[in-house]
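Translate structure to sequence.
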């Protein structure tokens, strides 16, 4: 005759094993997804100013402005093991100072249940697009790419880059005044 405590213990142990097995299944069934989706990025109005930065000597650096469009449908990335996505737009370019510069211009969190379609039109960077020197003036190969962190219920955090990119050409003259 089992006492109620023996039964409760058996039920608890069973529940725990089922949960562990499901967590592992959530990880296993999604661990090999590539999590990639295509993106279309466009831009316009690329401009560069040369303005004093925050350093004590107020050295002048390049500060850029542009408008961009982002169109992506991340529904192929969502599955039962995806809690949310953290999307961010990165500008990558090389300069005489650094072989690779990466500047985050914009980001967005998409929760499960949110619309998986991102359609951003003529947006401004959310964050300042500073170069640490004068590497933006006349730079004709600034590449915009969209990346995302997949935040799962169980398992590791994949970091992927959407397929598709866009090249921005900055003019070779500074503008004065406001962007
Ligand atoms: C300011 O500009 C100088 C020269 O371009 C650069 O070396 C320095 O890192 C910049 N400082 C900041 C805080 O951006
Ligand atoms: C532009 O930059 C990308 C990487 O940021 C590089 O792969 C590509 O070869 C460059 N293109 C030119 C024409 O320099």
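Result:
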């Amino acid at each position: 005759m089992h006492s109620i405590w023996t039964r409760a213990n058996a039920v608890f142990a069973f529940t725990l094993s089922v949960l562990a097995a499901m967590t592992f299944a959530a990880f296993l069934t999604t661990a090999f997804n590539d999590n990639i989706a295509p993106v279309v990025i466009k831009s316009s109005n690329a401009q560069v100013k040369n303005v004093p930065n925050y350093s004590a000597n107020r050295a002048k650096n390049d500060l850029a402005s542009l408008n961009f469009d982002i169109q992506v449908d991340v529904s192929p990335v969502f599955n039962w093991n995806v809690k949310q996505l953290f999307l961010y737009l990165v500008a990558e370019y090389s300069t005489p100072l650094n072989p690779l510069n990466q500047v985050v211009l914009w980001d967005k969190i998409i929760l499960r249940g949110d619309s998986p379609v991102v359609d951003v039109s003529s947006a401004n960077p959310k964050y300042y697009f500073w170069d640490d020197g004068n590497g933006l003036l006349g730079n004709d190969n600034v590449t915009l790419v969209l990346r995302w962190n997949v935040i799962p219920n169980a398992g590791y955090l994949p970091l992927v880059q959407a397929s598709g990119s866009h090249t921005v050409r900055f003019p070779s003259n500074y503008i004065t005044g406001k962007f």
